[in-house]
Amino acid sequence: MSSAGPQYRQRAEMAVLGLTAATVAVADQLSKAAITATLGVGDGVAVVGDLVRLIHVRNTGAAFSLFQFEGSLILFYAVHVLALGMVAWFHRAFRDRSLWLHAILGLLLGGSIGNLVDRLRHGYVTDFVSVGFGDARFPTWNVADAGITTGIVLLIAYLVLLEPRHAAASPS
Q1: Out of 4, 35, 99, 166, which could bridge 128 as a Cys pair, Cβ 3.0 to 4.6 Å?
Q2: For 28-71, what is the HEC assignment?
Q3: Residue-wise pLDDT tens digits, 39-49
């Protein structure tokens, strides 16, 4: 393989990570802007009957409005920094793996950036997707939360299902 091979591969991994993260972060910010421009806080609109509703919520807690308590902003900044550091570590530690892994890391990065931007700008995160029936509803979430949750599930699946095969195939 030419010396350009590893450099090309690293650029491809960085491009997949960056483009995925940018797509999630931009979609997150645009969707939040649309919600805040059209719905007042607490207002909602049915999308699929009562099953899926858009409800404008200001979330001072973690993903899905969990862990809401006074003075939590500094804690959530620390969690964002930790998440960004973990993505950077995985990206570096898992070089030369599937580009899908770097897309998965992009989901995590983009979601973390999307919610971090909200916390920095407003001190809270805008959530708006509500799924359920009547009072039995899943906690309200946003595009960034979806990116983070999907990224975590796919990263665990990758580490459990695919990484052991990679380790077994690698020479000792």
Answers
A1: 35
A2: HHHHHHHHHHHCCCCCEEEEECCCEEEEEEEECCCHHHCCCCCC
A3: 999 999 999 99
Residue ranges covered by each domain of the chain: 4-31+45-169
Helix, coil or strand: residue 159: helix
pLDDT at 113 over 90: yes
Report the catalytic residues.
Answer: 127, 145
Closest CA to 110 of 132, 83, 76: 83
Rounded CA-CA distance 52/55 in Å is: 10
- Mapping DSSP onto H, E and C, the string for 75-108 reads HHHHHHHHHHHHHHHHHHHCCCCCHHHHHHHHHH
Place of tokens 């890391």: 105
The residue among 113, 99, 95 whose CA lies nearest residue 15 is: 99
Q: What share of the chain has pLDDT > 90, as a percent?
A: 60
